[in-house]
Amino acid sequence: MACSEQGRRQAMAIESERRVLHPRESSSEVGTRERANAIESERMPLISIVGPTASGKTSLGVELAARLEGELLNVDSMQVFRGLDVGTDKPTASQQQRVRIHGIDLIDPGESFDAASFADLGWRVISEASRCQVPVIAAGGTGLYHRALNHGLVDVPGRQQELRAALNARREEEGIEALYQELMQHDPDAAARIHPNDWVRIERALELYASTGLLPSSLRAEHGFREYRFRQLTFGCFRPREELYSGIEQRLEQMWRTGLLEETQCLLEQALDPERLPLKALGYRHAAAYLRGEWSRDEALALAKRDTKRYAKRQLTWYRACADVVWLRVPLDEKALQRLAEVVSAFLREECLESFDLPIVDAV
């Protein structure tokens, strides 16, 4: 059945805004919806592009979507914020004009958006596009969002506001370290996966333990994250380490020249929680420390470069654990881009290919 593109996009925009601003569903509703989605999505295709920061995921995703007359689902936990364009390296105006991009400019700083919210948004985008035979390319570096979209989430209660308020009061009084040690005592396996200063994940783990009486690590192990919700083809963007790190440094220097400080100043004026996104994010927390007079400009920029390189290394470690990623040496030349579009087109038609004939990297 033919679809009206204008009508489809208007309906998607209205529905996305409604669902982003609506309260989360109950645990039972989420579980029921997950089971229904798993059945419906059995043959729905999804192309994913993963990799470390500054590796060219968005550029490749936009290029592929344009060649396939598809749409881009942006998989980035920072680009959901309105008004934070420079420090998040949001898709440019020309990229947004070239293809339809979902998953950006959804909420204001200070509002919440998590992996469950993204999985809901992604499901709606992919299912609606699939009904109209429009391919979707999910490109971005937030591994937790990719996993939530591809494998679903653990069936647990949503946010407990009273419990969170109590935990935050304890954080102010006792400090993050005391609560991290409490998590370590209850569930050392969960604590080992969380940085001692990552308040968002510490809070969530303690919240789950208090509200369910179950260990977060056991809930995660029971789910397993093994089954795919879609018919999946995943490409990774690979650059040699020196090239990747050089790109990170150049991008950060440009951000500091072209608006990151101004964006950070606006966040500071809103008195947002520095332990939550967006102020705790790479770049913004370093710029905030400079603006508060805690570091010099050179010190803050140097630390931002160091921490972003470390983050890129962690991203690579995350995606190395995904055995089905086809790693490509990027950037691709015109011949390789055309071949990639052919490979993806064949995948969408469920055709078998003897060879990808692409610049594939065996070990990353």
Explain what this protein looks like in three dimensions:
With 364 residues, the protein is α/β, with parallel strands linked by helices. Helices cover 55% and strands 8% of the residues. The protein is built from 16 helices and six strands. It has helices at residues 5-21, 27-40, 57-68, 93-98, 115-131, 143-151, 161-174, 176-186, 188-192, 199-212, 216-223, 241-258, 260-269, 284-291, 297-320, 334-348; strands spanning 45-50, 71-74, 101-102, 136-139, 231-238, 325-329. It has a six-stranded parallel beta sheet with strand order 3-2-4-1-5-6, sandwiched between helices. Strand 2, helix 4 (93-98) and strand 3 (101-102) form a beta-alpha-beta unit. Helix 5 packs across helix 6 and helix 7 (161-174) packs across helix 8 (176-186). The N and C termini lie far apart (43 Å).
